[in-house]
Input
Amino acid sequence: MEFLAPGSWPDALAARAENPGAVPIAGGTDVMVDLNFDRHRPDALIDLTRVGELREWSVAEDGTVRLGAGVSFARVMSELSALAPGLAMASRTVGSPQIRVRGTVGGNLGSASPAGDAHPVLLAVGAAVEVESAARGPRAIPVSEFFTGVKTSALEPDELISAVLLPAATGPQQFAKVGTRNAMVIAVTSFGLALHPEQGRVGAAIGSAAPTPLSAVDAQDYAAGELVDLWSSRGELPGGVAARFGELVAAAARPIDDVRGTAAYRRHALSVLARRTLTWAWDEYRRAA
Amino acid sequence: MTAVSGQAPTATARTREDGGVGTDAARPDGRLKVTGEFAYGSDLWMDDMLWGVTLRSPHPHARIRSIDIGPALALPGVFAVLTAEDVPGELRYGLEIADQPVLAEDVVLYQGEPVALVAAEHPETARRASARIVVDYEVLEPVTDARTALGHGNEGPRTDLHPEPTPVVEQSREAAPLRPHGNLIRHLKIRKGDQRDAAAAAGKDIVVVTGDYEVGMQDQAFLGPESGLAVPAEDGGVDLYVSTQWLHVDQQQICRALGMPKEKVRLTLAGVGGAFGGREDLSMHVHACLLAMRTGKPVKMSYNREESFFGHVHRHPAKMHYEHGFTRDGDLVSVRARIWLDGGAYASSSAAVVGNAGLMGIGPYVVPNVTMDCWGAYTNNPPCGAMRGFGAVQAAFAYESQMDKGAAALGIDPVELRVRNAMEEGSIAPTGQVVDSAAPVVELLRRLQAMPLPPAASSGADVDLRAMPGGVSNTTHGEGVRRGVGWAVGYKNIAFSEGFDDYSTARVRLEITGGEPTVTVHTAAAEVGQGLVTVQQQIARTELGVERVVIAPTDTSVGSGGSTSASRQTYVTGGAVQEACRRVRAAVLARSGRELWEDVLGDLVAVLGDEAVEETVVWRHRPTEAVDPETGQGNAHVQYAFAAHRVVVDVDVELGLVKVVEMACTQDVGKAINPQAVVGQIHGGSAQGMGLALMEEVVVTDGIIRNPSFTDYLIPTILDMPPMRVEVLELPDPHAPYGLRGVGEPPTVSSGPAVLAAIRDATGMFLTRVPVRPEHITLSGDVRSEERA
Ligand SMILES: Cc1cc2nc3c(=O)[nH]c(=O)nc-3n(C[C@H](O)[C@H](O)[C@H](O)COP(=O)(O)OP(=O)(O)OC[C@H]3O[C@@H](n4cnc5c(N)ncnc54)[C@H](O)[C@@H]3O)c2cc1C
Output
């Protein structure tokens, strides 16, 4: 197996173009597991850890956060908890401290697992994945179009993920995941929520309860409709709204029974997570007045 | 009697010798392990070694029509490919019954059964080659339920105490027998007292509580997978370095399979990364030796995590039906119980596990009338065998659940009901054996009651998520959280029971090296992480008053040290070391012509000169006897050890997630040889029992393991394991060295049932299966909503 270690982004794109059978490796927390279990034996690895650009993040004038694909979960937690609170909360739930130091948001997207913990929040905030190829240059894929199936994505074979683009938070965000132990656990199901007061919009997305991460569109619309007059008054959440929101989120899921949990439990848990997180986020919004 | 605090373990009765018995002597292997320098079996290395890999059956039950090894042999770098035909000695081995083939011959009986072996220059080459072996299987229907295998079929649990004893079909040839003699491994019976129904037996008004319980298949989940290195020797024999629990029983089985005498098959213990029973059976031992003998080169085999799930036995899953009869004021007058243990495809130690589950199966209570039937069955599930607690763990979930159910039915506090029926010194066990040393069940419970309870759960936006059910996954800020408290007490027989000739050998040598007296202790008893090497040093220091004690490499050049299991090593190997030290002392005294060891001690350099004094001792605990096959009566046990737990949980009743807030444990250890190590065992044992109650299960569907990884076989993390309060009692057992009692298993017996009881208390649901899964709590028809609450 060849080990390619490009030192710059153009070199990385060139390596990607020239080696169609190669697998990019960032933190390696997914790639190395596959290699160790002999599930995959690529011709070459392209090590992205020497590409400095991937480890940077910045905020544009319009408030868009450009998060390099190689920024680790640990850094998201410590550096982005104000700009991207939902993603920071999701990062806190990933694996163990060691995994959070190695693992990256770009790698999470690269694996495109339905259980990837970054994904629900990225959907809820309306993020885009910035990708690039040497031949065609960069493009931005809305996260809602990024996941195409179980562990497949819209990334072309000659492309690399350069960054994630997400709007700086303008309201409270939440992430919650259910697992059968209290840390270091793959989501049985998960839920991301973002309030966008300036747009009167509620983002809501589901993880680990469908073949791909999924926005709960009906639930989003319902919540936006119920809150339409409350954004400015910051009044109390009307009774029953959170519960109905939860039901709609559960209805959006397409879960299966597997060794981690039953479909019925996943739906039930989603209704609870959605109800609770909406309540927490709204309370936070009211307190912020 | 002393109490040792769990939070900051301190030695109480320190002996005068520093590092002797009763002190927190430092582990000789501690620093290496903490710094990552300790060499485990998987670190074994020789420059010219080959790597061996195992081809395993993908099917739980199939006939092998043919095996074509040609394509594998054709791969460059491959040195050997072996099948059952290449086993020179006896094909079948086993701990109690030689029923398991070294490599499958004509049928495979479980998923993961070894079929062929490959040795190659590189592990990757070996894996690639094994994938090229063509095995033509005729897939057969698996038998995956113990009751079906025994023909007990769907008779369903009995729901009352009244029917005549049901005739039981012990062997069912119709149910696709897996063995010529049927699918029964063992049927343990206890018939004690009046066998009529409880009311008739007691002649009184009786409250009967009935329950059906189920325990899932737990894995030992040791961190160091199966590994070893076999080196062909010039004398035509083989030297095997291997992580194991009992070198000599391995040696016997390897010799039979290789057709070689034991002088030619020498074993040395490699660094062991945990065992918990999972290394009592052979894994890669014979395989590596076969490959080494065939190729003439050293062969290393080291399983990865996934293979490890197929490479060792698990804890028996159990189905249990219990009927307890109480008088109105709470006297337990009768227990009728039936336990089915799924032994999987091969016997392993199932017969002994059945014995334990049945004989310990009503718990540490005095019950005049007992009817117990415990069966172990062959199925096409993964083989099950030894795991910490060894049958006593499964039964404890049932009998402690029954005590709680009885308490509820009678309106009596669950602790008081236990106290009322508790065993004590002088009580008669269900086997008829008199409990002839301390049995402080009441004191253990009373001490737990005296401990303060942890503060109430917090709630709100600023909660510490780590203290919440669901933990850092941010699932609740207090919503839906209910607190519960559960109690359980359990007991475990220490050392091997039922007439087994259970002994350990120790060789102790005293000499002057570098001008200083040095003791060398040589045994074949396996250090598996529990601290036996430390205990051996401590005993030698105390007995001989010599500070410098070296532990020789553990190997078969000395006699058997017995198994590192059944909480027996400190007792039995400790006893052997103590006796060998005493003989050394006597020999030195005789040589010196003096009478007092104190007088000789300061003068050892002169007394010994260049000569070494060495004594080898084979030491046995008092004998036990087999139980009567019809009544289960007999003095089957050496010693009992007792532990009790109080567990406090917070349960998010809407999501079914559990946070164990605190575990408190009281345990009698007779004498804490190393108090810190004792508390460590209590922490670890409690965690392992808690894991079974909450999350640890090898999920098997139609004979196929669905979660052979640490991604999906979950064990508790530091955020799942709560702080513990531990009180250690030291009530000496006059029959045992230093009065000690085995320590390792009892906390694993009682912690899980206490966790289960606490979850029931929090939820109000009478859960009957462990591990408790979130969906059992939320979807069993009692989904609570915080909005309704
Ligand atoms: C013990 C353990 C616990 C874990 N727990 C969790 C958890 O709780 N939640 C969770 O979501 N995940 C978890 N994971 C999975 C893993 O840590 C995450 O998916 C992580 O985000 C992967 O990031 P990485 O940088 O390590 O990716 P890598 O392993 O390096 O790569 C992952 C995939 O992304 C591709 N890739 C990486 N970077 C790029 C790029 N710039 N452009 C294109 N493709 C790229 C790789 O080719 C590969 O296909 C866990 C893993 C382990 C081993």
Remarks:
- Chain A has two domains: 2-49+57-167, 173-287.
- Residues A 23-31, 33, 48, 69, 94-95, 99, 102-104, 106-108, 110-111, 116-117, 160-161, 186 surround flavin-adenine dinucleotide (CB under 6 Å).
- Chain A has a mean pLDDT of 97.
- The longest helix of chain A spans residues 263-287.
